[in-house]
């Protein structure tokens, strides 16, 4: 009878001893991701060669769920990564997962997106009453409704809560990753700008040039203007920058979700603020006003605003030009309140008594048209305009001053 050896004598098999020692020190554990080569593929089993003493078998139920196309892609000899489910048992078989390995790689990709503040454009594959589900490679991510862009509000199904976001099915959203928790299978994304993400804000602002034109989406309407989202950053479009003519209601001009083209007025890296303009994209009407109008000319105007010291009127054939009818120029009679003579919306024929395009000022007179018998005498009288203090209280400030004031208000509103 041959002797049985319970222990291997290193002197009799030194190479085998070294291999055993190496394998003992490099045992695969649950959760490890290891590289291997596809050894064989059948509709019922996939074997992976990961080296060493044991074979790796892909989980049977995972193989059953694979399509013929999936199986065909796993040709013998292909290098793959596998996730260790169960280390080698007594029979030397190891259970692994191809899908879990792919997921681990995708979790790492998601984590890098979050750490770098980068965005990804992902398709909406499902919805529920709380938000939408998107696909990031093999992962399903959730975008809460509160973190969707405001432009989608108009498309909500208000009557059926479960289908509230159904209109977004098939849409592709540009998103930021804000939470990655693989152990809870939790991937949260946001379509809204990065509030408080200073690094991302700074990066976006650095990409924008003053004077350049960009397309953006109106994200919010406020009494003093609107916020327009450009490349993930909300910028302020002050009401004074909507148009060369007077705008009193921002909601009458723009709608949330509307795409607009705007000019960048200001980029403040230190305060992380962005000032925008619509009117800068249109010709400045004051540059050519003297080509069509002169002092002494009678013109049609519309009353657009009343103040204690007079009425503001816009030229009917050029509403972008707005001037003052001082209270003393409303009537030959004494007037204590402009409302006694005109009201907003009235159309009147007036005379231009002062035209100073370099100061963006034009003054009108109503009484000089009404009282033609006093035309000569009135012509010798210097036109009465608002004092600097009066005009300053109602005129639209310069773009820089208006933005500075409005942005302060915006901090509370946004």
SSE blueprint:
Blueprint: H1 14-25, E1 33-41, E2 46-49, E3 55-58, H2 60-64, H3 68-73, E4 79-86, E5 93-97, H4 98-116, E6 119-128, E7 131-136, E8 139-144, E9 172-181, E10 186-190, H5 198-207, E11 213-222, E12 225-230, E13 233-238, E14 259-268, E15 273-277, H6 289-292, E16 298-307, E17 310-315, E18 318-326, E19 347-356, E20 361-365, H7 367-370, H8 375-380, H9 388-394, H10 399-413
Parallel strand pairs: 3-5, 13-15, 18-20
Antiparallel strand pairs: 1-2, 1-4, 2-3, 4-5, 6-7, 6-9, 7-8, 9-10, 11-12, 11-14, 12-13, 14-15, 16-17, 16-19, 17-18, 19-20
Characterize the structure shown:
The radius of gyration is 37 Å and the shape is rod-shaped. A hairpin with a 2-residue loop joins strand 11 (213-222) and strand 12. The strands form 4 sheets. It has a 5-stranded mixed beta barrel. It has 414 residues and is of the alpha+beta class. It contains 10 helices and 20 strands. It folds into 4 domains: 28-102, Beta Barrel (OB fold (Dihydrolipoamide Acetyltransferase, E2P)), CATH 2.40.50; 117-190, Nucleic acid-binding proteins (OB fold (Dihydrolipoamide Acetyltransferase, E2P)); 199-281, Beta Barrel (OB fold (Dihydrolipoamide Acetyltransferase, E2P)); 290-383, OB fold (Dihydrolipoamide Acetyltransferase, E2P).
